[in-house]
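Input sequence (160 aa), recorded before submission:
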Amino acid sequence: MQLDTTDLAILDQLQANARVSNADIARRLDMAPSAILDRIRKLEQKGVIQGYTTRIDPDLVGLGLTAFILVRTEERVGLGTIGQALARSPEVLEVHHVAGEDCYLVKVRVPDTASLSRLLQERFGRLKGVRNTRSTIVLATVKEGAPLPLPTGEEVGHGA
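Predicted structure, token format:
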């Protein structure tokens, strides 16, 4: 899908604050609110905008431990059934099918190391085809959940 500079400006505004009003975006872009609403609806229909979320401080809701888990499977390449099974666990935030010795990189949030151990043993370890896992516990997060680096108007004009 081709996005023009107005679409990118709208997306930039929504990434910064998903609760920004159409009127505020229209004012910033010197457009009519109805035109902004129409563009946002089209971006949603075409799947560019996939949804709107609320960011919650994980420490304040008892999910203070973040870990990345590399999962090696016996699954045939491209099948993806284990990836889908991993994604069904509520503790799992992200599942990425990766190249290399391992098959999946999984990001999880849990209360503590005991919870991580249970997740690995009772969920991941019981999935048929999981050969092994390797976990890395996050000590501190420097950056997370950043907006996408959208192309600028100049980059759009040059086929980006």
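Checked by second reader. The mean pLDDT is 93.
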